Amino acid sequence: GNGGLSFSASGKKENEQLITRLDGNFGEFQLDVTASVLSLQETSGASVNAQISGPNFGRVARLLDLKGWPEGHFDMNTQVRRPDNGLEIDAFELSLAGSEVRLSGVIPDFPRAGGSEISLLVSGDDLAPFREITGLPPLPKGAFSLEGEVSASSDGKTRIDLAYAMPLASGTLNGIVGEGESLVGSDLALMANGEDAAALGRLFEIDGLAAEPWSTTAGIRIEHPEYVRLSEALFTTSGLTAGLTGIVGTTSLDKHTDIQISVSGEQLSDFQVLAGDAASLPAQPFSLAGRATAEAATWKLQGMNGNAGTTKFSLDGTLGKRPSLAGSDLQVSAEGTD
Fold it and tell me: Hey, what's the torsion of the CAs at 65, 250, 146, 101, to 10 degrees?
């Protein structure tokens, strides 16, 4: 890094504690660290207060092998104590990329995580700088927050109980988090709601949703680095209810996705854009249920049965993906009075 090494160090004995202070700069980073220990050989009862700032947190993250963190100026404040074998985090505060990260808690058998209880609060002006580490799609600019508890059981499992708010959605996320970057083994319950289903639909390239409030619940199990299994996923908005279970690809919908879907609504014609010019959809209540499997450029539909008004219909075959629906090869049967 840039800059030189310039700091002052001092030490003194006070109330049987050895108190040391380091103040200055290490290259481009500013440090102010005060530590208190019984002796250099005995860390039980130690405490450390540290303030660190610098022009590029991304560089620090890479040194710690943390991927995806944003570049830019940061300020960090840490206050920790080490009673007996544990570690008590009185405060950890990080200011970075227009956001604040705060946590506190106890790790009773440090460095082992078992029994840990951590309180977390994250808030900021925009999630965009954190897209890589969160894995979220591009969201409209806007404030966000994340608050809750993270705990680790004696068998090594990590549990989260979090409440979040961000552009388009707010809700809760609870359950067990798997290990490693892929988080395989996670078993989570998601609740979300928002004020504009049309905006949510545009984010996921789904047309036909009205600019009305919406809500969703889902069980999410991460069974593989490239897909998740959804259970009892339910989406509701004005005039529409959709349910989904099965496997959904996370690296691409074209890989692994195999789902059972059910949809019902007040007016099928709201989704005319999905049918293109192939058919004119009636302005009638409808329902549809069946299996859909994603392939390279199409959806394979199996056992799709439904009704629109008094007409019953079934679909099987291949549905081409938008926008052209090229490759569609559907077998359609219908009966009714409309």
Answer: 10
Amino acid, res. 1: G
Residue 130 DSSP one-character state:
G
194-223 confidence digits (pLDDT tens): 999 999 988 877 777 889 999 999 999 999
Residue 275: alpha-carbon gap to chain centroid = 32
Lookup: tokens for 80: 């920790």
Angstrom distances, CA of residue 67 to CA of 17, 30, 63, 160: 38, 23, 10, 21
Is the pTM for the entire model greater than 0.85? no
Euclidean distance between CA atoms 48 and 81, whole angstroms: 6
Region class of 125: left (phi > 0), else alpha (psi between -120 and 50), else beta: alpha
Residue position matching structure tokens 């006070």: 14
Residue type present at position 37: V
**Cα–Cα dist 320/315, whole Å:** 14
